[in-house]
Amino acid sequence: MRIGITCYPTYGGSGVVATELGIELAAAGHEVHFISYSQPFRLSGRDGGIFYHEVPVSSYPLFEFPPYDLALASRMAEVAEFYELDLLHVHYAIPHSVSALLARQMLAAKGRRLPFVTTLHGTDITLVGLDRSYLPITRFSIQESDGVTSISSYLKEKTIADFDVMRPIEVIPNFVNCDVYQPIRDEAVRAAARCKLAKPDEAILMHLSNFRPVKRVVDVVKVFAQVARAVPAQLVLVGDGPDRSAAEWLAHDLGIHAKIHFLGKQERVNELLPLADLMLMPSELESFGLAALEAMACKVPSIATRVGGVPELIDDGVTGLLYPVGDVEDMASGAIGLLTDRTRLDAMREEARKTARTLFCSTKIVPRYVSYYESVLANAG
Ligand code: GMT
């Protein structure tokens, strides 16, 4: 198949899923064309069967807001025509789904068919899409898509409830490549890599996100402060974003900054995650929680919040521990309990990897997208 993929190319879960999907589809022999305003950040260097088309957005003194959605629609239609795409797959409804709808109409006027699939990821439904200025157009573009998928059952139900969407929505959970994301099996190699971040007797706690308020990075620091009082530990924060400075201030105020590593945005998180003992994901909301899945594949269980689609990923007490949002005390004692009970932690580490492999491995999930594309192509007019 020739598939066009549009996503936000910046640091965020939907862009990561779209990019990894494109890489997996290309590896399976499909031709994949990314269409976006810049190259998705995880795409560099892995390009067999993958093409990238930049969307130029011209400015003009009259435009206070250059219309990216129109430029995107034009480019989608061009790329679809020039490269004979079979379908478009857009990730994050706003505005990608609306642009795809326009591109489909532009090609229909030329007698060409361009069905499109919209994948709902999270804040396109739970936050931004609910804004009155976006809700009617978001609902319309979801309703008009040739196929709609959602990354968790939670998000599907939320879309039906809040957007009154009548059309079927297929749940296809997020996935991880279990060969790229895997534990370091040689203990000596793992110990040598951990040396750069912690002393041999220290635990490593990790957090990976775009540091938006919804991630509650300040809670990460608060939880760590309590853990570090009870067990020797270091905290590694991967990513960057609006709440980084608040987290840095708190680390200094609490006098624990020497034990916290702010690594900023990292491309090869698969090399960092296996170094951790625990992942901290105290988010206000997660429709899925991709960072926790990537950690699980590396044998790292999470201390997380019981929100959104997280319970569909993490089995509380088996592959991680779940708590109410903001319950810093209990998250810290849960982490301390695991770090001081190696047998329990090791059992959880095994279960985490097993769940990632059996339920969320790319080898299991990506074929579901391919079958879904086939059904959309069979049904689209
Ligand atoms: O929160 C983010 O990291 C960004 C956001 C996005 O759409 O880029 O992430 C959402 O999609 C991810 C991939 O499907 C999910 O793993 C996240 O749970 C979801 N974020 C929220 O629901 C807040």
By helix and strand content, what is the structural category?
Answer: alpha/beta
Assign the CATH superfamily of the largest domain: Glycogen Phosphorylase B
Number of helices: 15
Bound molecules: ligand GMT
- CATH fold annotation of the largest domain: Rossmann fold
Q: Any low-confidence stretches, pLDDT <50, length ≥5? A: none
Query: What's the CATH architecture name of the largest domain?
Result: 3-Layer(aba) Sandwich
- Write the element-wise H/E pattern from the N-terminal end onward: EHEEHEHEHHEHEHEHEHEHEHEHEHHH
Short note summarizing the structure:
The protein has 15 helices and 13 strands. With 381 residues, it is of the alpha/beta class.
Task: Please tag this protein with its features.
binds ligand GMT, Rossmann fold, 43% helix, 7-stranded parallel sheet, 13 strands, 15 helices, alpha/beta, single chain, 381 residues, 6-stranded parallel sheet
Structure description:
By secondary structure, the protein is an alpha/beta fold. It folds into 2 domains: 2-175 and 362-380, Glycogen Phosphorylase B (Rossmann fold); 187-359, Rossmann fold. Helices cover 43% and strands 16% of the residues. The radius of gyration is 21 Å and the shape is globular. Ligand GMT binds at residues 12-14, 17, 92, 121-123, 151, 174, 210, 214, 285-290, 308.
Q: Can you lay out the helices and strands and say which pair or pack?
A:
Blueprint: E1 2-6, H1 13-27, E2 31-36, E3 50-54, H2 68-82, E4 87-91, H3 96-108, E5 116-120, H4 123-126, H5 135-144, E6 147-150, H6 153-163, E7 170-171, H7 187-194, E8 203-208, H8 217-230, E9 233-238, H9 244-253, E10 260-264, H10 269-272, E11 278-281, H11 290-297, E12 302-305, H12 310-313, E13 320-323, H13 328-339, H14 342-359, H15 362-379
Parallel strand pairs: 1-2, 1-4, 2-3, 4-5, 5-6, 6-7, 8-9, 8-11, 9-10, 11-12, 12-13
Helix pairs in contact: 2-3, 8-9, 8-13, 11-14
The structure holds ligand GMT.
